[in-house]
């Protein structure tokens, strides 16, 4: 499980560091995108209906989930 990828003698990437970085980047992008969705569905007049409310609440739940992955799970994988 602790395989390493050697590029040269001074720069070594361990497998878990790479995995942690990928998880963090993807989750952080998810937080940003879902924040925009939640913000814009609440501001748009055409989304002021049950579908818009469900979309906004789903985006809010995804913000929480992506935040947990970015700021709790990714550092645990890194360590």
Automatic annotation (TrEMBL):
Keywords: Membrane, Transmembrane, Transmembrane helix. Pfam families: 7TM_GPCR_Srx. Residues 24-79 form the 7TM GPCR serpentine receptor class x (Srx) domain. The chain crosses the membrane at residues 20-39. The keyword Protease does not apply. Signal peptide: none annotated. The keyword Membrane applies. This is 7TM_GPCR_Srx domain-containing protein. It comes from Nippostrongylus brasiliensis (Rat hookworm).
